[in-house]
Write a structure and sequence with these properties.
The chain is mainly alpha-helical. The chain is built from ten helices and no strands. 33% of the residues are buried. The C terminus is likely disordered.
Length: 204
């Protein structure tokens, strides 16, 4: 019989918390069972395997990332939305490195996999961050890939303690976002057209 008080959702949340604490690569069913105060076989009443647990954590993480970016960018546009959304993602990865790693390691099992919908919401959140720049449709996918690569790279390096030089990491992050902002503004400017200032972008 399943242990009273445990459910697929509560086991997933406990697994996500543990992954954040010990690292996704160190997460195991045995360690999670010990944390929950049950025997390992009891977990299989709620998740079918460690791979299933990892997949559920990935869906949770992608949903949370999408929500964090959406909440941060609501009512904002242009560089203001970019800055707020990027900072929200950075903070999420810093606070939840294990579950974020699970989200990046997971692959959809099919078109009906909830991971597809969750990942789609993250992409939609990034797209919303870029909407104020009025990119040409042919360039949107390139901009999305660039944004994902730069934010993911910075955030995961920071979470792993990869920045050792004695220079403000916050200043480096601001520099990177300004660099992205200027590049996007330059991309949308037509020949002979003056590139809009950040203040103009905010008013879009």
């Amino acid at each position: 019989m399943p242990r009273a008080g445990l459910s697929p959702a509560s086991v997933t949340e406990a697994g996500a918390l543990l992954a954040d604490e010990v690292g996704f690569d160190q997460l195991s069913m045995g360690l999670l069972a010990e944390r929950l105060g049950v025997k390992t076989p009891a977990l299989y009443n709620h998740v079918t395997s460690q791979a299933h647990l990892a997949h559920r954590i990935a869906i949770l993480a992608m949903t949370e990332v999408a929500d964090a970016i959406r909440d941060a960018t609501q009512g904002r546009a242009g560089s203001d939305a970019l800055t707020a959304g990027a900072q929200a993602m950075r903070m999420y990865v810093r606070e939840h490195p294990g579950r974020y790693a699970a989200g990046n390691a997971a692959r959809p099992t099919g078109p009906d996999d909830p991971l597809m919908a969750a990942a789609g919401r993250v992409i939609a959140s990034w797209a919303a961050m870029l909407r104020g720049y009025r990119l040409d449709p042919d360039q949107e996918i390139h901009a999305l890939r660039m944004l994902r690569s730069m934010l993911h790279g910075f955030a995961t390096l920071e979470a792993a303690g990869g920045f050792q030089i004695d220079t403000s990491v916050d200043d480096s992050f601001t520099w990177m976002i300004n660099f992205i902002d200027h590049g996007l503004q330059a991309t949308t400017a037509t020949p002979g057209q003056q590139r809009p200032s950040p203040a103009d972008t905010h008013r879009r």
